[in-house]
Structure formats: C-alpha cells, structure tokens
Design brief:
Number of strands: 9
Helix content: 40-55%
Strand order of the largest sheet: 3-2-1-9
CATH topology: TIM Barrel
Largest sheet: 4 strands, parallel
Distance between the termini: 30 Å
CATH class: Alpha Beta
Number of helices: 10
Shape: globular
Number of domains: 1
Strand content: 15-25%
Bound molecules: 3-phosphoglyceric acid
Length: 209
C-alpha cells in the first residue's frame, strides 16, 4: 500500500483537483492536462459525474494515474474502486476509511489537518497523507513542524494553494507533490478552452524550474 501511494506522489509534482460539471468535458479536459505534462489526475466525487468520468478517463488516457477525490465514506470508496480509480484521496479521516484503505486495490491518501489525525493513520501503517486545507491549517510552517516528530512521513498539501505558492511547498523535504484546483479554473473549463488548460499546466510545471 505505501509503495503504491508513494508511486502516485512521485509521478507528478502537481495534482489537479478536478470537478466535472459537464460529463462530456471529462476526457478532453483531462487530455489537455496530460498534454500539458500532468501525470496524476484527481477526479472528485463532488458532482454526480465523478465516477463515470473516472471510468472514461482511465480508458481514454492509459498513461495517466487516475484517482478519486473528495471520498468521504467507505461506500464511496467502494464505488471509486469499482469505477477503476487507481488511488483514493479523502479530505479527512474516519477509522472505517483508514481500515478499508489498508487492503483496498486503490491505495489511500488520507487527508489530515492535525498531528492527532495523522497519528490515527500512522498506527495503521500510513506514511503518506494529504495535508488539507493546507493554507489555513498552517501552510509551509506546519509541514516543517510535522517533520520533527514524523521524519518518515510525506505530504501532498492541498487547499488554497496557487500557482505562485506551489513551489514553496515543493521545496520542503517532506513534500513530493501539491494539489489544487487552480489548474482547472471554472471559467476556462466552462468555456471548453482546452488550449488554455494545457498552457496553465505547462506554465505551472515550468514555474517549478
Ligand atoms: C481539495 O479538495 O483538495 C480542495 O478543494 C482543493 O483546494 P483548492 O480548491 O483550494 O485548490
């Protein structure tokens, strides 16, 4: 489980948090991100189209890692697995989700905002977490502080991160990737401007140097 989720974190420094409002847009949107250099896609279950989108994008883009985001129950976790999600991201933790994730086909990146939540996962063997909501939960300083007691834990911070601030997180030794919705601005997606989506992906990656 740990190795598999680590592979996801290593595959792309930027993880777009994608919400599908129009089911026909899932594949072209994700293709434009992949064309722009993004290798990991988090498709949220925030809209009714998330599960179908995961299925379609997996079939259409076999070179990308396609996972489910905003999973908040074991029932949703199962649905995401069945849709072919290659990983699952949750905004927070429950014991049931953490236990389910240990043996699931789709490895779990559990969301935590505090050390106590982290420790709930740590005792079950988790060593990688989403840090959410990153900016309001302490940002870069919090992640530096977590390094002291948990030097073997790595994070994917998400929540309030922008193109201009992503690099500050990626400089930390306990961060491999950062996530956010800035890669898929609502108005650009609504307009179906895939060339612009690709540009934002390329530009965000090249800003990292
Ligand atoms: C998430 O679920 O990870 C966040 O909604 C993404 O945060 P952002 O929209 O602030 O980038």
């Amino acid at each position: 489980h740990r190795e598999r989720i680590q592979a996801v974190l290593e595959a792309s420094p930027l993880v777009p948090v994608i919400s599908i409002e129009d089911p026909d847009q899932a594949v072209p949107l994700c293709r434009s991100l992949v064309d722009g250099g993004i290798r990991v896609l988090e498709i949220t279950l925030r809209t009714p189209f998330g599960l179908k989108a995961i299925e379609e994008v997996r079939a259409a883009l076999p070179d990308a890692w396609v996972g489910a985001g905003t999973v908040t129950s074991v029932a949703q976790y199962r649905e995401a697995e069945n849709a072919g999600a290659q990983f699952v991201i949750t905004p927070g933790v429950t014991e049931a989700i953490l236990e389910f994730g240990v043996t699931s086909q789709a490895p779990l990146l559990p969301g935590v905002a505090t050390v106590s939540e982290l420790m709930m996962g740590y005792v079950l063997g988790y060593r990688q977490f989403k840090f959410f909501p990153a900016e309001v939960a302490g940002g870069v300083s919090a992640l530096k502080a977590f390094r002291g007691p948990f030097p073997d834990v790595t994070f994917c911070p998400t929540g309030g991160i922008r193109r201009e601030t992503a690099g500050h997180y990626l400089e930390l030794s306990n961060v491999r990737s950062v996530g956010g919705s800035w890669l898929t601005p609502r108005d650009v997606v609504a307009a179906g401007d895939w060339a612009r989506i690709r540009e934002i992906a390329e530009g965000s990656l090249s800003d990292l140097g």
